[in-house]
């Protein structure tokens, strides 16, 4: 279910892809002739050739005919639309996704739509299987392509949709009317660029740029290079509204008002860090155009000895909570992991262990990793009281502590202060206690932790290299 | 030169006197009958009896006659005034200070005033010696009293003074016109109270309440108990202006505009902590009146083993800079020690060693003591860079670090960050380096440290118990 699995925490921590030859560049912009040559080279690798296009067209024609036949057999009033990147010429060579939507009139009730949709899908793709997003659809292989057959309603516009997928045909219409071959080529280049830097995808693991967003951004700026130059100078929040019809405000670093729905931000899922990543690499590419940026690759897996070497060199105190990965889809898993690691990190910070960085990984096992400045702390911790002049509050504080065996209360300037016994002097003890469950874990993460988990402390985290060597290599070389 | 010598840092840290039976009291006010009985008992111990008064009067009369004779011998136009607490009946039994001012006309030039003043003083107190405050005077013993003979100018009012002591006769006139026997008795009680809690004295070591301030506060509130009740409810900044003639504003926690000088705050030297100390003990005394508050005593000296026990129990990392005490008067020494320990503490805080508390002591040796949460730190320290969108600044940051061998720069949310090598991973190494001299030490402290100093680290600070056992006892039991 899961493939690659570094998941440094977005925003509170690290989320990065390392590009091989990316160091030591200066950022003065070079001339665009260099960039054009690099783009031309990239295009040679990603533009689908005539044979690929023909094969795709044939498959789509055949599938469309089959769906229409099935609809006719059942006397169903519905039409068939090809949508997605393969419908708009914006797919990258080698991508094999065909999306066909079966569009029913709004008068059909939801149950019937689902039932008819699945019946037609199963008939057309007899070896396929049913999937459930917001509502069910059929997915399967056909002539070497991955095909999704999705039923939807024929709604007036994006704002009046009855299910989340009803927007898609409107997006498709909007883009097909505007994307000529040259724009489509620039979209492919931009997609490849975003993939290369690790910012492509609106899934909740990546929190990056969706395909639709990518296309709108290229259109809005008039091409790939123009978009790069604009992005290099963005001052988030950046607000774009291609149809100039937005009706609300958004609290996101990047806002692109959906041309088919004035109330929706197409970039809502895109994190501040991915916006910054785009800006960083836009500048990199403009100042020193090179193909490698488009084809960032995983670093070499770090060995156990390599992890130990970094821990020694850094002089820090890593600590990892390790547990069986909950069996939920990535769009549920990763938000929970991010929430959990943020909760663990901030609790450890609040308790004085001074986290330096944190990350979360998942494969068979899931990991919440925090690197601390201190594993242990003094037995006493200072607790500031109220100013002495706030009489009832000050007297309450003084009386509360005067009878105990804390150090104090004493006067510090105009306030009371006390040095109390610290609840946790060892971060490991904290993570072994019930306090772990009070930091705001995700539901499924909490459930798995309740079943069982283990702690790895100090350079024992090197044990993780076996399963997460690539992720640890990125963690210990976090350059973008 | 120096006697007792705890000097916890004012405001940034601790300054406290421990009162023997002061714990576990509740703070609801008790009836004032109890307080009156306690005050009556205190008065039995501090009111000068008839014999003491008579002896004082005789000594003053004899001294005054001698000074007048010396003035006449020299044909000097000047008068003699008795000033200070013994002139106003506000001294505590056993205090033996006589202050006589020799007041010259304003027409005398400063050199002549100093010359005549010293000549007369030396003639009257042939066994005395010359002291130099703002200008010179003679001090000596007479009939068992400590006598100061001080020349001053006869100025119009406090605001037009030619030397700092010219105010004193005006203060004296103002108070003598207002302090009857009953007020004088209350002033004595208030002084004894301030001495008991360690807040009496406007010297720069104590930064507490001067005698003149004490008298003005009792007058202004109409008595000791009334003053206590008012102080218990103060909300600093507290501003009093007995003559309602103040012409400027002050940035002090307690402001008492001098009745003889509308531009002067009599309480300028009084620290926020001593104002808070007065408030704390006013409430204590009102809620649970007892004599002990008036006669706070030093705690038992802490042994080396006792110090080690506290360090172990606290789990902290104390570190002390030890050096020969500079040979300057306390009013120069203590401000320099306070400044130095504040500088050391804030530098260690800035460097990540998380000080818990600090103190400075002085006897033959002087000590700058800081108690740290961590003696050592990781080799890396996080350094946050600018938001990526602030292009020139962000590019400068990235380029500055990209070529180095730091961890990063990397993206953290919308910003760059880097993990740099920490300059000092050991607090002892920092205090052994030139950095110690860059924290804003006092001049004489810096000079002595340049000559030589040693560091005591961890429970080696126990070695200090021999010279500073009482101070360390207070440090480790900081309750007020």
TrEMBL record, chains A, B:
One of the GO BP terms on file: tRNA 3'-terminal CCA addition
Q: Which cofactor does it need?
A: Mg(2+)
Binding residues annotated for CTP, in chain numbering? 85, 88, 171, 191, 200
GO molecular function ontology, one term from the record: CCA tRNA nucleotidyltransferase activity
Domain (Polymerase nucleotidyl transferase): give its ranges: 67-169
Report the catalytic activity: a tRNA with a 3' CCA end + 2 CTP + ATP = a tRNA with a 3' CCACCA end + 3 diphosphate; a tRNA precursor + 2 CTP + ATP = a tRNA with a 3' CCA end + 3 diphosphate
Residues noted as binding ATP in the record, renumbered to the chain = 85, 88, 171, 191, 200
Q: Give yes or no: UniProt keyword Chloroplast.
A: no
Keywords from the UniProt entry: ATP-binding, Magnesium, Metal-binding, Nucleotide-binding, Nucleotidyltransferase, RNA repair, RNA-binding, Transferase, tRNA processing
Q: Which family does it belong to?
A: Belongs to the tRNA nucleotidyltransferase/poly(A) polymerase family. Archaeal CCA-adding enzyme subfamily.
Please state what the protein is called. CCA-adding enzyme
Q: List the taxonomic lineage.
A: Archaea, Methanobacteriati, Methanobacteriota, Stenosarchaea group, Halobacteria
């Amino acid at each position: 279910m899961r493939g690659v699995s570094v998941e440094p925490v977005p925003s509170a921590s690290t989320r990065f892809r390392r590009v091989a030859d990316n160091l030591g560049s200066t950022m003065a912009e070079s001339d665009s002739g260099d960039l054009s040559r690099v783009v031309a080279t990239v295009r040679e690798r990603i533009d689908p050739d005539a044979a690929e296009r023909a094969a795709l067209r044939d498959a789509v024609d055949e599938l469309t005919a089959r769906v229409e036949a099935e609809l006719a057999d059942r006397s169903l009033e519905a039409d068939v639309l090809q949508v997605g990147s393969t419908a708009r010429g914006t797919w990258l060579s080698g991508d094999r996704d065909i999306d066909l939507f079966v569009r029913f009139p709004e008068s059909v009730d939801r149950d019937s739509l689902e039932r008819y949709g699945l019946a037609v899908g199963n008939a057309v793709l007899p070896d396929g299987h049913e999937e459930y997003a917001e509502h069910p659809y059929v997915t399967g292989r056909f002539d070497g392509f991955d095909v999704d057959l999705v039923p939807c309603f024929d709604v007036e516009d994006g704002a009046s949709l009855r299910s989340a997928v009803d927007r898609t045909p409107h997006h498709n219409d909007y883009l097909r009317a505007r994307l000529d071959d040259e724009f489509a080529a620039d979209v492919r280049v931009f997609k490849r660029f975003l993939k290369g830097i690790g910012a492509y995808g609106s899934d909740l693991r990546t929190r990056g740029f969706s395909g639709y967003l990518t296309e709108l951004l290229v259109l809005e700026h008039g091409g790939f290079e123009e978009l790069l130059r604009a992005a290099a100078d963005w001052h988030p929040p950046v607000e774009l509204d291609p149809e100039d019809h937005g009706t609300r405000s958004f609290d996101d670093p990047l806002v692109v008002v959906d041309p088919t729905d004035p109330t929706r931000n197409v970039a809502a899922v895109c994190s501040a860090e991915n916006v910054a990543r785009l800006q960083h690499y836009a500048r990199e590419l403009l100042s020193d155009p090179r193909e490698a940026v488009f084809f960032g690759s995983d670093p070499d897996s770090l060995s156990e000895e390599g992890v130990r070497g970094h821990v020694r060199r850094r002089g820090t105190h890593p600590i990892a909570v390790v547990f069986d990965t909950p069996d939920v889809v990535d769009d549920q898993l990763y938000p929970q992991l991010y929430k959990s690691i943020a909760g663990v990190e901030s609790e450890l910070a609040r308790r004085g262990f001074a986290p330096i960085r944190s990350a979360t990984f998942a494969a068979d096992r899931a990991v919440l990793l925090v690197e601390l400045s201190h594993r242990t702390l003094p037995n006493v911790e200072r607790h500031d009281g109220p100013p002495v002049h706030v009489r009832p509050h000050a007297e309450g504080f003084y009386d509360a502590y005067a009878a105990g065996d804390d150090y104090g209360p004493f006067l510090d300037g105009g306030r009371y202060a006390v040095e109390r016994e610290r609840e946790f002097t060892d971060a490991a003890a904290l993570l072994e206690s019930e306090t772990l469950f009070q930091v705001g874990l995700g539901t499924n993460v909490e459930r798995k932790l309740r079943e069982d988990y283990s702690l790895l402390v100090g350079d024992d985290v090197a044990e993780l290299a076996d399963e997460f060597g690539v992720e640890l290599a990125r963690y210990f070389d976090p350059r973008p």
